[in-house]
Design goal:
The complex is a heterodimer. Chain A is an all-alpha fold. Chain A has helices spanning about 1-25, 35-50, 55-75, 80-100, 105-125, 125-140, 150-180. The chains are: A mainly alpha, B mainly alpha. The interface of A and B includes residues 79, 145, 153, 160 and 170 of A.
Chain lengths: ~180, ~200
């Protein structure tokens, strides 16, 4: 029981808060925020129970999160948002690896990691929305405008980053399983 | 002749992709499946995207396929799903519908107001205006049959398109949305003029 509570308050809850806030800030979501958070929490716990320490956890969670968003916000959610959902996972994954290797004490590393993440997201909340709008702006083709990056290149980069993230997460999951 | 050249180039590209896959020790059947899935989904999708330069096209195709090969180390099924998803993303099917927010805004009648509200969101001046528009709504909603506050939120906060505003309000067409926005922008400009320090927003 103690283990579950610790993992809930130090792992699941801050992660879900971070993931929900990211999508809320990015898309400037004004409605159904609480229900979104609750559904993501259920999604996170359910997926974690099925695929603990497996890459499939990330993939399944992202797919279900996309479906939840699509049901809640319908037309406002498009294919581009699958990358917006993946991005906070990438941050979560990279920073947790960084803290894990930098700070030898796992508990302290975990607490500092979650606090810094939540602080960070509130500090840059307006910038997330601006960055999302820029990303969205470059997503479609526009022949009238000379751009720094082509729409197809942006899509390719997003895909490659997403797949590399899946691969890296798999490596780390195997490492964690072996180290224990 | 040009066609033959391009066919030869495509065959060379295909060979290169297969060789890279083999050198990464990906089984041949998986390479073939990835190629087929990517090509079939792309072929059957709406408006596939292309590079003008064949060399750029080759470079990015190789990079994309390398990422599929990397995914096969995780799970071949995931790699195949990834190939299908990638094929879909690089077509018109993945286009964002209400796109060109910024470029359209350059021509929008309310662009300065949008920009001002965007930059001053959550400040006292905007919150105060929200109160004004609520009063405006109470007084004139029945006469004009327009929920000014809702239109204001949809247009300037949620940046919805005219079509979406029509769907979410009782307004019938673009003309009515423009009418509502004209009244809102005029009231906003008048409000700003009373605040000397912020000056006037051209509308």
């Amino acid at each position: 029981m103690n283990n579950f509570l610790m993992s809930f308050f130090l792992g699941i809850l801050p992660d879900v808060i971070f993931l929900s806030l990211f999508i809320i800030f990015a898309k400037s979501i004004k409605t159904k925020r609480t229900i979104l958070f609750i559904l993501l929490l259920i999604d996170y716990i359910a997926t974690l129970i099925i695929y603990r320490y497996q890459t499939l956890f990330y993939i399944l969670f992202i797919i279900i999160e996309y479906i939840i968003l699509k049901i809640l916000y319908k037309k406002d959610i498009e294919l581009i948002d699958s990358f917006v959902i993946t991005f906070p996972f990438l941050i979560l994954f990279l920073t947790s690896c960084l803290y894990y290797f930098l700070i030898p004490n796992y508990m302290i590393a975990c607490i500092i990691h979650k606090i810094t993440l939540l602080l960070l997201i509130f500090l840059v909340k307006n910038k997330i929305n601006i960055a999302y709008k820029k990303y969205k702006h470059f997503w479609n083709r526009n022949k009238k405008e000379v751009r720094k990056i082509k729409s197809i290149t942006l899509r390719n980069i997003s895909l490659i980053l997403m797949y590399i993230f899946i691969f890296l997460s798999d490596l780390v999951c195997i490492y964690i399983m072996n180290v224990g | 002749m040009k066609n033959i050249k391009s066919r030869l180039f495509n065959i060379f590209e295909l060979m290169l992709i297969i060789i890279i896959g083999l050198s990464m020790k990906v089984p041949v059947q998986e390479i073939i499946f990835l190629l087929i899935i990517f090509m079939v989904v792309r072929k059957n999708s709406n408006n596939p995207m292309h590079y003008k330069s064949p060399y750029l096209c080759m470079l990015w195709t190789i990079l994309i396929f390398t990422s599929f090969y990397i995914l096969t180390y995780v799970n071949p099924i995931i790699a195949m799903l990834g190939a299908g998803f990638a094929a879909l993303v690089v077509t018109g099917n993945a286009d964002v519908n209400d796109t060109f927010m910024f470029s359209n805004d350059d021509e929008s009648k309310y662009r300065e107001m949008k920009k001002f509200i965007q930059e001053n969101r959550d400040t006292e001046i905007i919150k105060e205006y929200e109160k004004i528009i609520k009063i405006l709504n109470q007084k004139y909603e029945k006469r004009y049959k327009i929920d000014f506050y809702k239109v204001f939120i949809l247009e300037f906060y949620e940046r919805k398109t005219f079509k979406q505003i029509i769907e979410e309000t009782n307004l019938k067409d673009n003309k009515e949305v423009t009418k509502a926005l004209d009244i809102i922008s005029m009231s906003f400009n008048t409000y700003l003029q009373t605040k000397n320090e912020y000056g006037e927003i051209a509308i």
